[in-house]
Write a structure and sequence with these properties.
116 residues; 52% helix
């Protein structure tokens, strides 16, 4: 039921369905999502302290393999779930580092303002 409530709230808030009772929406957010809001400031502060600045490593693989097929790229991502991989239109592989502390801090502030 929790997941169903969360999906329903998302649809109502984000997609702006008509005839939405705002009180019901915010009561559901406060009551049903409360377990997900356990000390967010401390959690995000710890995550931000561990994070390193964002950077990327670009690999040009064209001389070895043409990585322009979606299925190949999908399989590469599945084989390396710990890496954040992106691909340019020309097949260049971009390995992203985790986002830095500043991004996490901004996301945390947005979540707190929304009461999530």
């Amino acid at each position: 039921m929790e997941e169903e409530s969360t999906v329903g709230i998302r649809s109502k808030v984000i997609h702006g369905y008509l005839n939405v009772d705002e009180d019901v929406v915010w009561d559901t957010v406060k009551n049903d999502l409360a377990p997900f809001v356990l000390e967010p400031k401390n959690f995000y502060a710890n995550q931000c302290a561990k994070a390193k600045p964002m950077s990327a490593l670009t690999l040009k693989l064209n001389s070895i393999v043409q990585l322009t097929d979606d299925e190949q790229f999908y399989q590469l991502c599945q084989d390396n779930p710990d890496l954040k991989l992106e691909r340019s239109p020309t097949g260049t592989l971009i390995i992203m580092s985790p986002t830095g502390g500043e991004t996490g801090k901004q996301n945390a502030e947005i979540n707190l303002e929304l009461g999530l």
